[in-house]
Every structure is written in structure tokens, then in C-alpha cells.
């Protein structure tokens, strides 16, 4: 039975991954840094997330605007969940990879969640990443409906500011890539 569950879980994960466009792997969420600097908060709007009733799917969608630019980047992903709850989503590019913007949703053991937004500003001269984390309390993602129609829905504000910091990645600065 455990083997069957593992096989089913791997099939569902593969299906979820295939629902996203094939994109190059985004930068890691935690990388050694030399310099960290606060930057203006990321402005998120139109945020929505919900598990879809009787479908074993969940979705996350929002728009994000950065203080230094007036362009809005749209982020959206469809995931897989067997429990009609909002499941953690691995780091995923928004819109298209040329924007350098990606996000990750992490469900915490206490029922809260974290939305992490990453903006890659790297160039030939330096690897620079801006990273913001917005904590979502447990009461902002309640279970709705009854019986087989019960599912988790985000009911918090649709617009919010995400505190952010800029990271200058040390592996490039220190020349580990073979560059000085």
C-alpha cells in the first residue's frame, strides 16, 4: 500500500510540474551573500489562491509591481493537492523567464504560509537578487464548504506590500565561477 501511495504521489507531482511551462531553473532561495540591502517593498495586487473542489488542484495567481518600474508582472501556477488544501509550490517563474521574477508558496506546520517573491537582477558583472517574504497567517486560509466540497481558500487582502531585500551573491563576487 505504501508503495502504491508513493507511486501515486510521484505521478501527481509529475502532472503538476508538467502543467507549468518548461522554464530554466530559477536561482536558489538561499545562497551565500556578501551584501544585503533593504529595497522598497514589492507591491502585490489581485492575489488569489484556492484549492479547487473535487479536482485535486490548487491555484495561485497575482500581479507584482516593483517600485523602480511601472511594469506589472503576472504570476500564476496550477498545482496538485490530494487534500483539497493549498499545497506548497516550488520556486516557479512568473509570466516568462525573461522577467527574472519567480515565486514560491510554502505551507508551514502551524497552518500559516509564506509567499516568497524573487527578482533576478543579475548581469555579466554581478549576481544580484531581490527577495521578499510575505507571511500569511493561518486564519487567512480557512477551509470552506462542507463534506466532500470542503476546500481551502485564501481570504486575506488581495493587495499587500511584501518587504524585500537585495542580495549580492558572494559566489560571483569571490570569483568561484572562474571569474574575478
Automatic annotation (TrEMBL):
This is Uncharacterized protein. Keywords: Signal. It comes from Cercophora scortea. Residues 1-22 form the signal peptide. The lineage of its organism: Eukaryota, Fungi, Dikarya, Ascomycota, Pezizomycotina.
